């Protein structure tokens, strides 16, 4: 019995923010952003309307509808995000409440861009060992309120967008179908290359206030872009090849690769490195920017609705991001 995706859903805030809009707020321009990232526009949450939990809830409702299941059928929630509504508790419990699920377990996953792949791997264990029949996996992110929208933060803030994606997993007894394997990795020595350092338990809010240092912007995410880029292209390719090799498959067997939408140039680099055709790689970063843990389930839901994945197709999902963490999930749809 393999784990299988029974339904997908996504929610994108209605507020479209173009590169030209960002250029009104900082020293940047459409041409630079498109050339370096491929992004044309992204969605920003509407304050007072969209939260990480609310967007995740809407995506989850749509995934449950697509699967023909009700919230009462869900046995476990896995919620991946780096931008929870509260410092604690995590948004998994909000999802349980918003959907009206039974008092099931709700696990919060903190693996940034790799969060959805990490969550799939955990869901797979629960489904395979029979501890759950249906697992809801959600990736949701609200970056926009916490980005440095001045020129100082432009290398980070032009990349990220808000949104949510969700899948419902169950089991199949059809031979060869479903999740074939997942592969997870981490390398914490690079934790601070892409991170949000404060406030934290190493630097509490009262201490930050007491320092009253206008130069201290540790509450904005920081990223060593070139360093991250160089590691990303190596790790993406490695973990995709690891999944194919362990299943005795090759790139020509792949119907679709859905990479975490980090940067279109990274996706194109991997496509070229692995010798994949353009129609074998799904990209929507042009429209949504980088939505970290939400990017793969949003792309998956869109690709499925567009008919890009059909029954029997081999689908690879792969991610790399802050941590560093990276991973892949290979699935026969
Ligand atoms: O999902 C998590 C994983 N994250 C990633 O995978 C991100 C990986 N990294 C990247 O995607 C790229 O490094 C970036 C898109 C973030 C940056 O591209 P880059 O080619 O590495 O640019 P850079 O940081 O080396 O900056 C080049 C120049 C600098 O100017 P000078 O020093 O050459 O005069 C920057 O100040 O571009 C400047 N710059 C900008 N100019 C206009 C940086 N950001 C901007 C901007 N608009 N938004």
Describe the 3D structure.
The chain has helices at residues 19-23, 30-37, 52-67, 91-99, 115-128, 154-157, 205-211, 225-246, 264-274, 285-288, 295-305, and strands spanning 2-11, 16-18, 41-43, 76-80, 105-109, 135-141, 163-172, 178-186, 194-195, 222-223, 256-259, 314-321, 325-332. It has 333 residues and is an alpha/beta fold. It has 2 domains: 2-172, Thiolase/Chalcone synthase (Peroxisomal Thiolase, Chain A, domain 1); 178-332, Thiolase/Chalcone synthase (Peroxisomal Thiolase, Chain A, domain 1, 3-Layer(aba) Sandwich), CATH 3.40.47. The strands form 4 sheets. The chain has a 5-stranded mixed sheet with strand order 1-7-6-4-5, with helices on both faces. It has a 4-stranded mixed sheet with strand order 8-13-12-11, with helices on both faces. Helix 3 (52-67) crosses helix 4 and helix 8 (225-246) packs parallel to helix 9 (264-274). The longest helix is centred in the last third of the chain and has 22 residues, at 225-246. The two termini are 14 Å apart. The model has no long low-confidence stretch (mean pLDDT 97). Oxa(dethia)-CoA binds next to helix 2, helix 6 and helix 8. Oxa(dethia)-CoA binds at residues 28, 32-33, 36-37, 113, 154-155, 158-159, 225-226, 228-229, 232, 262-263, 266, 290, 292, 321.
């Amino acid at each position: 019995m393999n784990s299988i995706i029974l339904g997908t859903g996504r929610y994108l805030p209605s507020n479209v923010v173009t590169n030209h809009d960002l250029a009104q707020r900082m020293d940047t321009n459409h041409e630079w952003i498109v050339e370096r990232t491929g992004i044309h526009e992204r969605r920003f949450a509407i304050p007072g309307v969209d939260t990480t939990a609310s967007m995740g809830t809407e995506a989850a409702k749509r995934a449950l509808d697509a699967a023909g299941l009700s919230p009462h059928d869900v046995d476990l929630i896995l919620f991946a995000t780096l931008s929870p509504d509260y410092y604690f508790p995590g948004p998994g419990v909000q999802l349980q409440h918003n959907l009206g699920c039974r008092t099931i377990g709700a696990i919060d996953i903190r693996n940034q861009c790799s969060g959805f792949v990490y969550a799939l791997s955990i869901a797979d264990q629960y489904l395979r060992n029979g501890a759950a029949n249906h697992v809801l996996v959600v990736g949701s992110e609200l970056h926009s309120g916490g980005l440095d929208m001045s020129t100082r933060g432009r290398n980070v803030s032009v990349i990220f967008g808000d949104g949510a994606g969700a899948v419902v997993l169950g089991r199949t007894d059809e031979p060869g179908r479903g999740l074939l394997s997942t592969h997870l990795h981490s390398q914490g020595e690079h934790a601070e290359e892409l991170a949000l350092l404060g406030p934290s338990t190493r630097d509490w809010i009262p201490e930050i206030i007491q320092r009253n240092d206008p130069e201290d912007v540790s509450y904005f995410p920081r990223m060593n872009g070139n360093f991250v880029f160089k590691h990303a292209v190596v790790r993406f390719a490695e973990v995709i090849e690891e999944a194919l090799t362990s299943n005795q498959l090759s790139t020509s067997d792949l119907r679709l690769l859905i990479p975490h939408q980090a940067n279109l140039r990274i996706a194109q680099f991997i496509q070229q490195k692995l010798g994949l055709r353009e129609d074998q790689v799904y990209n929507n970063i042009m429209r949504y920017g980088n939505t970290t843990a939400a990017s793969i389930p949003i792309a998956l839901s869109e690709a499925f609705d567009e008919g890009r994945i059909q029954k029997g197709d081999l689908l690879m999902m792969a991610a790399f991001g802050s941590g560093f963490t990276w991973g892949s999930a290979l699935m026969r749809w």
